Amino acid sequence: MAKKSLSGSVIERQNVLNNRFAVEEIQKSIDFEGVIVDGEYRFTLSQVAEFFEVDERTVRRYLRQHGEELSQNGYEVLTGKRLAEAKKVLATDTDVLTKITQLGLFNFRSFLNLAMLLTTSEAAKVVRSVILNITIDVIARSAGGDTKYINQNDESFIASLYDGLEYRRDFTDALRDCVALGNYKYPLFTNKVYVSIFKEDAAEYKEVLRLEEGNPRDTMYSEVLDLIASYESGFAEALVLRRRELGRKLNSPEANLLFEGFEKQAHWKPLVKKARYLMASRDRAFRGADHTAISEYIAPLSSEDFNKFLVKLEDRKKKGLKASKKQKQLDVAKK
User: Fold this and answer.
1) Per mean pLDDT, which range of 7-11, 44-48, 97-101, 172-176 is the poorest?
2) At the N or C end, where does the chain have fewer CB atoms within 10 A?
3) What pTM was estimated for this model as a whole?
4) For the chain, how many helices (H) and strands (E)?
C-alpha cells in the first residue's frame, strides 16, 4: 500500500484538497469557524498562527515558501473594495487596524493546506492525522467498503465492460484462427496488451491491487477498458489481414513481430499516456496502490475525478450503488 506523506508530497496534499467530500467531513470535525467573508469561513494570519501554536513569522515564512500552492487552494490577499467589505465583518470579531491597505485571509482549504505543510507544530500534526483518517474513511464508505471496485462508481464502467466483451471475442477468435499456437496464446497476447498499455501483465496487476481472485478487468477504469478494447479490436484485424497475405496461420515469431509493429503506431501514444496517468494516479489516491512501473505518470486528481468516483452514503442508497446491485449489472453485462 502507498504510504501517505502529506507534508512531503504535493500530490498527496492536492488529492485531499480536491476531494470535497473529505474536506466537508474534516471541516465538521475541526472546531475552527473564523468569520464569513464572501460566503465562506475565512481566517486571518494571526488566527491561524494561534490555532497552530506557532509564531506569526512562521506562517509568513510558509507563505513565502509555498505561496503558489496556498493561493491555488484559497489563500488570498484582499485589497480595495473587497478589503473594505471584509473589514466590516472582521472588525466585529478581531482587532483589525483600520489603516491597513491589504489583508491576507485563509479559507478552510488553504488552512488545511498549511496544516499539511507545517512540520514544527504539534497542532498541525494532530490535524494531519484527522485529515488522513477521514479521507481514508470517506473513500472506503464511497466504495461500499472495498476500494478494489471503486472504479465501478463511474457510470461509464458497465458500458465499457460490456462493449469490451464484444471486442474481446473478436480478439480471441482472431488468435484462434490466425496464430499457430496452443491455448497459451490467449494469456500471452492478453498480457502483451496489458504490458503495452500499463507495463504490467495480469499477474503483476493483480499483485499490485492484491486481487486474490476475480477478473482484473472488473477493477479497471472505463478509459483503460476502452483502450484495451481498441488494442484487441485493432490487433484482431491486423492478424486477419496478415493471415490472408500469407495464406496460412502465423507462427509465434511472426505474430510477435506483428504485435511489436502494431503497438508502436503513433496514434497510441497520447491514449496510452492518458491511461497510465489515470491508472497510476487514481489507484494511488483511491486504493493506496502503487504501480511502480508507471509511477512517473502520478499526478494529483482533479475535483471532477473525486466527484465522479466518490458519493455520500445517502446518495449511494438513492442511486442504487450497493454492491449487490452492481454485481447484478456485471453479471448481465458478461452474459
Assistant:
1) 97-101
2) C
3) 0.83
4) 17, 4
Q: State the cell numbers at 88.
A: 466590516
Tell me if 196 sits within 8 A of 263, measured CB to CB: yes
324/146 Cα distance (integer angstroms): 13
The residues facing 79 across adjacent strands are: 102
- Report whether 164 contacts 230 (CB < 8 A): no
Q: Which long-range contacts (CB under 8 A, 24 or more apart) does 179-185 make?
A: 179/239, 179/249, 179/250, 179/252, 179/255, 180/249, 180/250, 180/251, 180/252, 181/252, 181/255, 185/255
Residues 6+ apart with CB under 8 A from 215: none
pLDDT of residue 216: 95
Q: How far apart are CA 245 and CA 255, in angstroms?
A: 13
The DSSP call for residue 302 is P
Q: Which residues contact 185 (CB under 8 A, 6 or more apart)?
A: 175, 179, 255
Q: Which pLDDT band, with edges at 50, 70 and 90, does 269 fall under?
A: very high
Confidence of residue 324 (pLDDT cuts 50, 70, 90): very low
In degrees, rounded to 5, the angle at the alpha carbon of residue 74 between the alpha carbons of residues 72 and 75 is 95
Neighbours of 322 (CB within 10 A): 12
Hey, what's the cell of 38?
A: 464572501
Question: Across the chain, which distance is largest between two alpha carbons, in Å?
Answer: 89
pLDDT band at 325 (very low <50, low <70, confident <90, very high): very low
Which amino acid type is present at position 64? R
- Whole-number Å distance between alpha carbons of 168 and 245: 23
Contact 20, 40 (CB under 8 A): no
Q: Are 120 and 57 in contact (CB under 8 A)?
A: no
Q: What is the mean pLDDT of the chain?
A: 89
The continuous run of DSSP H or E covering 317 comes out as helix 313-318
Give the C-alpha separation, 76 to 297, whole Å: 30
Give the separation between CA 204 and CA 195, rounded to whole angstroms.
10
Per-residue exposure over 218-247, b if at least 16 CB sit within 10 Å of its own CB, e if not: bbbbbbbbbbbbbbbbbbbebbeebbeeee
Q: Are 243 and 179 in contact (CB under 8 A)?
A: no
* Cell numbers 486481487: residue: 211
